[in-house]
Amino acid sequence: MIETVAYLGPQGTFTHEAALTLFPEPSAELVPYPAIPDVLSAVDRGVADLAVVPVENALEGSVNSTLDWLVHHINVPIIGELIYPIAHCLMVHPAQAKRSKDEFVRILSHPQAIAQCQLHLRKEYPLAEVVYTDSTAQAARLIRDHPGEAWAAIGTRRAAEMNQLYLLQEQIQDHPNNYTRFIAVGKQKKVWPFPASQLKTSVQVTLPSDYPGALYQVLAAFSWRKINLCHIESRPTKTGLGNYFFLIDAEIAEEHVLMQGALAEIEALGCQVRLLGSYPCYQKESLQTTYKSR
Ligand SMILES: O=C(O)C(=O)C[C@]1(C(=O)O)C=C[C@@H](O)C=C1
């Protein structure tokens, strides 16, 4: 059966590349959506079987719209994770390729991509106006559609090729170790044909309001069981100023007896615990040894 996979499009985004890696065509049908809430809602409404969205970048941190939509608006578990290398390219229309750097008046891209290249932009294009787009591939399309403008876009090499743009520069991200963590969500668990680098469980924990030291006790429940936490973050409950819940990622499967014990102990403290998913994690590099790069 062909699975329908929603992703942040259009074609040529980093999310498209991540989705192709996790769900290769033709066994999956990849469907682009213009914004993260649309992607996640598609799977929640049953219009798509699965969805792929960015959740964290090594340079810029969490993607808040993913976290908030996942927690507040849908009820679909995380079923997999992919850590994908992010190499940003600067691309222009071929008609503009002979211009010198200081002639480019606009740099277009997704805010995350602009933020990941901000040192480069300040140094090389200090006078250019930055224009935010819904995705990096959207920026590439705008360049394609405006051949007469001295504009440049930041995005994937794939987007440059798809739109027949000229690559001015590659690897313009401010730090070489630029990775984004993508998650796949879906109502059915998925068995991938490649080995996972680890298993993770993500939980949302809301502390009782009148319990001094509650967070310390929550962390202790993991700590004395030697459960490694790889991510912890607070996000607003949206019920009032100062009201937060915690998102915790643990390097263990949900079914593991130690995790079951930790979750029961946290609930016994009076915390609300919601399981967001227990899933395998993959790295793009280690998948390349199993599958040919696409
Ligand atoms: O615009 C894209 O190409 C995306 O896939 C979005 C996105 C993000 O939101 O983090 C994905 C990976 C990179 O970190 C930059 C942008």
TrEMBL record:
<dbReference type="GO" id="GO:0009094">
    <property type="term" value="P:L-phenylalanine biosynthetic process"/>
</dbReference>
<feature type="site" description="Essential for prephenate dehydratase activity">
    <location>
        <position position="180"/>
    </location>
</feature>
<protein>
    <recommendedName>
        <fullName>Prephenate dehydratase</fullName>
        <ecNumber>4.2.1.51</ecNumber>
    </recommendedName>
</protein>
<feature type="domain" description="ACT">
    <location>
        <begin position="203"/>
        <end position="280"/>
    </location>
</feature>
<dbReference type="GO" id="GO:0004664">
    <property type="term" value="F:prephenate dehydratase activity"/>
</dbReference>
<dbReference type="Pfam" id="PF00800">
    <property type="entry name" value="PDT"/>
</dbReference>
<feature type="domain" description="Prephenate dehydratase">
    <location>
        <begin position="4"/>
        <end position="187"/>
    </location>
</feature>
<keyword id="KW-0456">Lyase</keyword>
<dbReference type="InterPro" id="IPR008242">
    <property type="entry name" value="Chor_mutase/pphenate_deHydtase"/>
</dbReference>
<dbReference type="InterPro" id="IPR001086">
    <property type="entry name" value="Preph_deHydtase"/>
</dbReference>
<dbReference type="GO" id="GO:0005737">
    <property type="term" value="C:cytoplasm"/>
</dbReference>
<keyword id="KW-0057">Aromatic amino acid biosynthesis</keyword>
<keyword id="KW-0028">Amino-acid biosynthesis</keyword>
<dbReference type="InterPro" id="IPR002912">
    <property type="entry name" value="ACT_dom"/>
</dbReference>
<dbReference type="InterPro" id="IPR045865">
    <property type="entry name" value="ACT-like_dom_sf"/>
</dbReference>
<comment type="pathway">
    <text>Amino-acid biosynthesis; L-phenylalanine biosynthesis; phenylpyruvate from prephenate: step 1/1.</text>
</comment>
<keyword id="KW-0584">Phenylalanine biosynthesis</keyword>
